[in-house]
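Hey, I'm writing a tutorial for new members on how sequence and structure tokens pair up, and I'd like a real worked example in the thread rather than a made-up one. If someone can provide the structure for the chain below, I'll link this post from the tutorial.
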Amino acid sequence: VQLVESGGGLVQPGGSLRLSCAASGFTFSNYDMRWYRQAPGKERELVAAISRGGRDTNVARAVPGRFAISRDNVKNTVYLQMNSLKPEDTAVYYCQRPTGGFWGQGTQVTVSS
């Protein structure tokens, strides 16, 4: 199982980013997927989750209406669209396959002017 995140970077407050997580080594469409984030000095927290077919999604209360999770089961990729970014969204964002507890290496998102 391999999960590789990309798309992070430095963005100004109010800006947008789309994170990607490319999955390999397993049948992607058979598994729910999640995005987490970890800010400096804080615990890792769940940001969003999506069912294996993509029909059911959940977004954390901290980011309702600003973040959206989606997936492409042909490209074996899960996405996190982040809009109206705030400095408090600064964190390392991780992709996870909850079944088996597999994690990617993370991608840094920094929101700063």
